[in-house]
Amino acid sequence: MALYGRTKLMTVMWTQELARLLDADKVTVNCCDPGFNATGPGRDLPGPPYSGAC
Question: Which of 31, 32, 33, 40 is most buried (CB neighbours < 10 A)?
Fold first, then answer.
């Protein structure tokens, strides 16, 4: 689970850096968290399955 969290963090950090690099070109950069689902890491959470939307 730690690796999963680190990769999500690195995705957000890369998105912020890319936004900084492309700011002069007026390019918008977005990063979206899909949330938890019933498969993968989400299956270990208590309660009902979660679904995320951007």
Answer: 31
**Cβ partners under 8 Å of residue 17, min gap 6:** none
Structure tokens at 26: 């007026």
Tens place of pLDDT for every residue, the chain, 54 residues? 578 788 888 988 999 999 999 999 989 999 887 666 556 665 666 665 555 544
* Residue 48 DSSP symbol: S
- The greatest distance separating any two alpha carbons of the chain, rounded to the nearest whole angstrom, comes to 45
CA 16 to chain centre: 12
CA distance 38 to 48: 8
